[in-house]
Structures are given as structure tokens and as C-alpha cells.
Amino acid sequence: MLSCILLLSPTTHAATTFLVVNTDAAGEGLNDPRPAVPQGGNAGATVGDQRRIAIEYAASLWGAALSSDVPVVIEARFGPLYCSSGYAALGTGGPVTLHRNFPGAPEDDVFYPPALANKLAGYDLAGDVGDVSVRFNSEIDTSSDSCGFPRDWYYGLDGNPPPETLDLVTVALHEIGHGLGFITFVNRETGTASYPDVFMKHLEDHATGKTFDDMSDLERAAATVRTGHLHWAGPRVASGAASKVDGVHSVGHVEMNAPAPQQGSSSLSHFSPALSSDELMEPFIYGANHDVGLAAAVLADMGWGALCGDGIVDQGEDCDDGNRLDGDCCASDCSLVETGAPCDDGLACSSDDSCQQGACVGTWTEATCGLDAFKIYKAKKAPGGARFARPTVAFADQFGANVTTLVKLSATGNPAGTDGAAANVPEVHLDCYKAKDAKRTSAVRGWQVTGSDAFGSTVIDVGKPTGLCMPSAHDLWAPPAALPPGPVSPMRCYKAKTASGQLRREASITTVGDAFESKDTVVGDLKQFCTAADVDGAPAPDSSAALQCYKVKDVRGQDKFRGAWVYANSAIRADRLVAVKASLLCVPASVERIQ
Fold it and tell me: Are 137 and 80 in contact (CB under 8 A)?
């Protein structure tokens, strides 16, 4: 069908130039002469013009996300694909060629898609041949409407398609993604591959712990249908997936599509539909999506390298706060905004906000902020993090002073609202460490307090110390700036139980919402008591602050918490941690010491 090749105007961006080549015949596809009404920012006068503009716009979004000195050439056309009244294949896409053992190749005998190979080599390896080939279903939105499919293409650029239409920009982004390298060439049925490709080297079967390039043919064939166990094992995707609710393993690896039985090209070369929130490179379209999202992180893991907006500060970047937005202290090109520039840190309890080395920093206003409840999760150091140094700190609380060694991270706490209420200070979390007190110091024994909280008032036996919880800044995407001194005090925690002779509270059901989840929760027995502490000579902002902590479990029938990776920054340690399982609900309490 190739009757003419018309080179369209290049789409140029600070990162990469994309060239779209029209390979449709006269009067067809991108050359369709039917008049069109401008829609959603697309001012094309004909159907063909609007299709071309939509594809060029999708290419521009990829161009802004990736960095290469070599232009990427996309061969684009419309053509007949499967279509019926109930189902239609919207598009196909892939690399035009594959390259191995080229100058600059990171590994020998590994296939690379041409756009990436050109970037690594520094020049166009294939000459006049294009890099990416995409085709879109010409049976949709044609004058004949021969297949009876009930939806038409939407050519707007605003990501707001009317009901019962298909957003071409979204589909073009998806198919261009395949052409840029989001694809493997392993035989899905037999597991064979003439040479490994760079994509398959990051596919890991968690059932065996092997990546595809380390597997036998039989192991690869088995992994293609191991639903829930086939993951993408790359650090940039893991970094970007921290905010995902479902479809992410506890170590940060993202599930890939491995249905049983196989679904042709949908298997392996897509994220799993279980991933939540939805991503561009899932096998089905759920609506308009103009965000390349984790797909760009996949390409970065494959060798595209520096990726502004992935939360990792690469060579050539001054900062990377996990987004490509202007208006904060790290600009859309990952350069620092000048120190002292005004900003808004979004924190309800701060004022006089200004940019400080890429972070928006304000001064806490304690008078407007009260102590929150905290939902406590068992936690551990994320894999790959630095070894915990076991610092020794001095502290003093209402029971006396001591010196303690922090042994390991044991838990993390999110500020929580109960029964629909919002947290007062959602920015301040707690990181809790198991502690071992110094020898030859008086141990706490036999203290009693009267504690009053949202669940009532009772006398509490305070037992041996369990650890120290420090106020901490958290972020799902990138390392956060340290917290300024604020309204949440360090907390020294002790084992606790209702005193003998007191009525034990009955378990109750409360809706608890925090940064990870909102669930109906059974609140059970009292387990810990925490009180404000001075740490290393710094006085607690509120010496009267206290928390009473109750054992919790989910009401049956709700989705199970799958874990979450979090960047944390407290006075003790700045590192990444993994929240594993909810264990306690700590609520503010007023206390009076009895003995």
C-alpha cells in the first residue's frame, strides 16, 4: 500500500527529536481527505490531518520524556486490523530493526531496539530505515464502518474524549512505546530466543528468582503463564512504583502480564492489568492516558539512562523530585530553582515557605497543629540500603533519663484519621526503632498511669521499654527534605496493658484511613504506651504528648495490604523502608502518672 512517503514536520523538544513519516497511500489513513471539525486542541481541517497531528502530539510526549542526540523516526499509517461489533484491535507497534554488537553496546550478543541502539552508539545505525513502526485500525471511524464496532476515534489533544470514543493519542503513545523497546522477542510458546533482548533481561520469575536471560527455554515458557510471579526487576521502575496499591511486589518489582493461557502479543510485553493505578502500557485501554508513567522508567532501566521525573538524581540533573512540573523548587528540566524563591510546600502547619536546594521549606506553626493518631506498620530496611549503624542516643521522658542503642528499624507510622476525620498534620510520620538500654542504669519498672483517649479512660501498667519513634518525612516517589522542628515529639514507647482490676475494653470497629489504605478495622487490646521524650538534649515540642497503642486487624472481606516502599527522612536515618503489615493504632491520650 505504500505509494508515497511524505516527511512531516519534526516534533522537537529539549530531550529528543521525533520525526513522523506518513506511509499511507493517497486518500487513505493519514491522507484521508474527509472534512473534520476542530476538537480538543486539534485544528486539523481533514480527518487525515487530525490523525497526523494526534500522532505527532503523542510523539512529542515521548520526546519530552527521553534523552537522545539521534532523532527517532516513526513510520506511521492506518490499515485494517481485527474488528467486530464487540472487539477491535486498536493498533500495533514495534521496532523496525534490532541491533547487537554495535559501537557503544553495553553488552555483547544482546539485541537492542534501534532508537536505543542509536542513542548508545551516538549515530543512526540503520541509515534511511525508520526506527519505530506503528499502525492503527482503519476499520474504525471510516466512511464504510464495515465492521460494526460501536466506537469512533477521538483526535483531540486534551485527553477528554466524549463517551463511546477512543482517544488516538493514548493508543499512539502505547504503540510508540512498544516501538521504542517495551517489547520482548522471546518465543512465548517455546521460550526460545536466538539472542537475548535487553527487555527480557529485566523479566524475573519470582517463583525461581531468575531473569529470562538466565533461564532455560522450558523455564521461560513456564514463566510466561505464571500469573502474579512474572515481574519487572529494574531499579527505576521500582522507584516509580512506590505509590502503587496493587500489582507491586514487596521489594518494589512490578507485575508483568503473564496470563494463563497466553494472550499472544499481550503476554510479557505489557504491565499486568492488576497494576493499580492504571498504566499506559497495560494490554487494554481503560480511557485517556497521556502520561508515559512507568513505561519511561522501563526504558530507562533498559539503557536510556537519565530520566527527569523518576525521583533519581542522574548525571546532568541538579535535582529530581519525581515529577516534570514547574512551579515547585525542582523545575521541569530537573534544574534547581534559585534559593529563596517563594513556593508552597502544601503543609498546613508551616509558613514563610521558600526554595532551599530544590526543596520547599517552611517554618512550622505549632499552635494550629494537634497530635494525630498513627497507624503503625511493621517495617524493615529496603533491600539494597545501607547497613544500619546502631546509633546511641540519650533521652529523657516522664519516667527518667537513660542512654539507649537503636538496634534496627521495626515499624513505621502514618498519620491517620478515624471514622472519616482527616489527619491534622499529614506530613509528619513516625519511624520506630527497636532499642536496647545501656547497662548499669535504672530500668523502668512498675509505673502506672491513668490514660484517657478516644476509647475511654483506664489505669495502665507501663512495662519495659520497646523502642523510640522519631518524627519523619515520607515520600512515595523521591527522598524528602528533612522536617523542620514541629508539633510532633519523639516518642519513647513501652509495653502496656490494662491494670489488674480494671475492666478491659471490648474490641470495636473503626474506619481508619492513612496514606496507604482506608479500611474498617477491629481495634483490640492495649499493647503499648508512648510518651514524649527529649532526644540528645533537644527538648520535646510538647512534653505532655502521649499515645496509647492498640492491636488492630482488618475486618474480613477487604483487600489485603500488599506492602509499600517509602522514602523516609528522620533525625536518625534517611533511607528507604518497606512497610509490611499493619499492627497497631496509636491514638492521642492525656495521661496522669499514678506512681
Answer: yes
